[in-house]
Fold:
Amino acid sequence: MIFGTHRKELVSLSLQGQPRWKLPLQDVVDASATLGPDGRIYVVANGAYAVDLLGRLHWHKPTADHVRSSPVIHPARLVIIGTTEGTLIALRPDGSVAWEVPLGGAIESAASIDDDGRIHVSTGRGEVVQLDSSGEVLWRFKTGDEVRATPAIARDGTIVVGSYDGRVYAIRPNGDLRWKVATGGRVRASARIDADGRIYVGSQDNFLYCIDPGGSVLWRHNVGQDVDSTVEIGADGTLYFGSDDGGIHALR
Structure:
């Protein structure tokens, strides 16, 4: 188990919970670490760090502002991160910058990458932005308020994301609106899509929503507090998620 802390450390624990190593960093960690196909661990704080499995630092690429978006590994061997100042950055395996693109709004969540290598990222400007692997912006989709969730991508390429305007949007791969569903509160949670295309997403109206691929609400479940966490789907189809009541919920 490897994770970052607000003590400005990257920590590795054994399966028995015993410390294996700790690596001091220069800032607090607000995002999950990512294990790359090269066996390195990528973690963000005041920029991006590449660390091996023994806890040795390979490189640190500082950024102008804090990074809260977990690193994502692109098939073109790029490490994709976004900063709270609104810049999307692609780093090569040696830590050098392949490209960086200012998007005009804070990036608070990880990017997502479709089967064709296109990158999708949400911004505090209220947009979902699609870029190609060279950093060229292909389109921007505007919602009514900040977007802080990671876009989810369905098997047919539809991009699903919630906005602080209280709606869940389904966007076609070309950037056109497919449908939108209104909830009763801001949507901070990232959506989860199951094998049948059903979408599960929480809202700050205290409900977890289940939406079919066509945009119809199949059901909603009230947990009494904001649902800001992403649903995890168990092998038996059980839905697991947290809420602001401090509990972990399981639904069948």
Notes: The chain is about 0% helix and 45% strand. Residues 27 and 71 are 16 Å apart (CA to CA). The chain has a mean pLDDT of 96.
